[in-house]
Amino acid sequence: MSVLVVGLSHKSAPVDLLEQVSLDTDAAVKLSHQALDVEAISESAVISTCNRVEVYVESDRFHGAVEDVAQLLADRSGVRREVLLPHVYVHYDEAAVAHLFRVAAGLDSMILGESQILGQVRDALHRGQAESTVGTSLNALFQQALRIGKRGHAETDIDQLAPSIVTAALDAAGDVIVEPATRFLVAGAGTMSLLAVRTLIERGVDPGRIWVANRTFQRAFELVAGFGVSAVRWESLDVELAAADVLITCTGAAGVVFDTERVVRATADGRPLTVIDMALPRDVAHDVRNLPNVTVVDIEVLASQAAEDSVAEDVEMVRHIVESEVGTFLAARQQAKVTPTVVALRSMATEVVSAETARLESRLSGLDEAQLDEVRRALRRVAEKLIHQPTVRVKELIEGPENLTYADALAHLFQLDPAAVAAVTRPGGDA
Fold first, then answer.
1. pLDDT interval class at 189 (50, 70, 90)
2. The dihedral of CA 308, 309, 310, 315: what is its sign?
3. ∠16-30-128 over CA atoms, to 5°?
């Protein structure tokens, strides 16, 4: 069994396609269960964020599993298979392990080093555990990925490049964010909105200049209690938009919330409006960016800016951490695969010694207890010496060449003298 990942991200697909493939929590859970219906797949977990959708599975077959998972993505998103496949990437076994470790460390993010992805990887793991789609293998993999992500942030300053997409979006919006008179309207009250409100206040924005609107008013009111901002009814969204200087939106809606006509009405007086759209699918219609006096910062803009960023020294340090951890994880996984065999070998040796000891004791009735004890110890020493080399060298064997024959394996495990083997197999020999 090996781990396989099939996915799309901002690196492989345009934003428009990512919007169509994007999964909410319920859809991600359903996809995880559908993956388990594939015969070759025994475990599954789905990471779905604003700029990636990835399906991780434990599978005993590569090609069939890839085709089935890709088809599931196409079916769930409604995107034709031939449109989807050119943007899908696939990683298998060692490459899949390395990919998840890079993702958790923020190396594969739109904004290098952003820390929000750690929480999203953790959410994927917790969903898989709660739904019983994650088993021993993926649990160990995701747990290690989370530890690596934390280590990268603890040992370097990679998170100073851009702690989250929220920070990057506010940076891209410019000076309007820090102007004292700026009025902010936050649409949505989920995790991204909470991060936006928190970041604004950390940057010195007066909570009294922030209004939050959400379809469920109670959710918006929770932000009031936590940060001292104002909550408004969703029905008053148009009125509040007309009074806002900056709109920050991440509603989780399935379609456009702020279409062109709505924004035109809100800016009819000609004043400037900055729109920060952190949703996927996008909350704001694409054509809004063409309106006069309207500046739009969204996932597409952030992706463009991220492509221009230089790689920091801290990024290289995190990459080194990931590379070393991949090797350590794979070695531990291989060792875990061998452990049951080693235990079984030792158990068999113990049983053989016990059986032979019992047989000898019945035949050697003339020996006293001390002599019998010496026989028992001798048998145990013989068994221990025979299995010592196999148990010590088995790790080297599993990391050795794939075309190793059974004869090679035996010679390696028992550390047989090559000359002795050659003498036995030489033409004219006793064999």
1. confident
2. negative
3. 105
pLDDT band at 431 (very low <50, low <70, confident <90, very high): very low
Q: Would you say residue 293 has pLDDT above 60?
A: yes
Per DSSP, the residues of 127-188 read HHHHTT---HHHHHHHHHHHHHHHHHHHHS-GGGS-S-HHHHHHHHH-GGGT-TT--EEEE-
How many Å apart are CA 339 and CA 13, to the nearest integer? 42
Question: What letter represents residue 65's amino acid?
Answer: A
250 is catalytic: no
Question: Among 41, 50, 237, 278, which one carries the catalytic annotation?
Answer: 50
Give the pLDDT of residue 396. Answer: 61
The Cα–Cα gap between 6 and 46 comes to 10
At 208, is the pLDDT very low, low, confident or very high (cuts 50, 70, 90)?
A: very high
Query: Rounded to whole angstroms, how far apart are CA atoms 350 and 345?
Result: 9
Per-residue model confidence (pLDDT) at position 389: 73
Q: Contact at 8 Å (CB) between 20 and 119? A: no
Distance CA 8, CA 24 (A): 15
Run of H or E including 48: strand 41-49
Helices (H) and strands (E) in the chain, counts: 17, 10
pTM score > 0.85 for this model? no
Instruction: Give the SS3 label for residue 232.
Output: strand
Cβ atoms < 10 Å from Cβ of 265? 11
Half-sphere exposure of 178 (CA within 13 A, CB side): 7
